Amino acid sequence: MNASVEPAAVTATPARPAKQRKPLPKPLAFCARLCRERPLGAVGALICLALLLTGVFADLIAPEGYNAINPIDRLKPPSAEYWFGTDQLGRDIFARIVHGARLSVIVAFAATTLSIVISALLGILSGYFGGRLDMFIQRMVDGWMCFPDLILLIVAVAVLGPGTWQIIVILGLLFGIAGSRIVRGAVLSAKQNVYVHAAQSMGASSTRILWHHILPNVMAPLIVLYTTRLAAVILAESGLSFLGLGIPPPSPSWGGMLSLDGRSYMFQAPWLAIIPGIALTVVVFGINMFGDALRDMLDPRMRGGGGRYMARVKRAIGV
User: Fold this and answer.
1) Predicted confidence (pLDDT) at residue 90 exceeds the cutoff of 70
2) Predicted TM-score (pTM) above 0.85
3) Is residue 36 situated within a structural domain?
4) Is 126:138 a contact under the CB 8 Å cutoff?
5) Residue 158 or residue 27, greater confidence
6) Using CA atoms, how far apart are residues 88 and 280, in angstroms rounded to an integer?
7) What are phi and psi of 247, to 5 degrees?
8) In this structure, is residue 227 part of a structural domain?
9) What is the distance between the alpha carbons of residues 126 and 128, in angstroms, rounded to a whole number?
């Protein structure tokens, strides 16, 4: 009789679940994506960060101050003792550049924030409500833009006088009114989306629609406008200081350094004009590169998005 041999029971060992990598925090993930997809934008972000840190910690970086006069060391070229040389009064150019960065940060961020608030307010009101309000605001903007920017700046400075806060208000109004056209165009485009019409048919108030549907979809143009306005404000302030209409001396404005010191001693001490010019060029280049990268990464049209409404729809249908 043949004995039947039963196969030995094999116990299956449960497979260990693969360790899932924890997602990076959103700021770190954004920085990694910026470095991977937009390397020039990452370089621009580093330049902006360096400008901001230099302005904040100017007293620690250059503790001797920007107006310390040392006539013995006047017009010294760049050396180990004076990295950027000295001017005609013996003042350290490195200290003046560092403290000028603080001045540029204050003027640029304050004037740009004011201009973005004005642009957003005028553009959203004009683009969303339309009608006579749109007609009135746009005709006012047309009249404002008929005059050259430089003429408006000179007249405004002549009326209000030179000074830091006067320059901030003047530049904020100048760029804010002109930038409202860009915001209005973005609002007109966002207003035609299906989810805005759906919210209106459901009886949502204008405030809710503006806050939850219109504003998120114009944030990308506002961010890009903010970064480009930063560079424009720095250049405009430097131009006014170059003409003698900006922040008065002895404040170390980069444009004033180019005008007062750089032109007078251009051949005898060329570093007085070259170093502030390089600082302006590098800062404007970095801000523009960072702004372009933010536009490419944050614009929902470039991501194929349609705001929060489309994100909810995609999650609902499993896309």
Assistant:
1) yes
2) no
3) no
4) yes
5) 158
6) 21
7) -70, 125
8) yes
9) 6
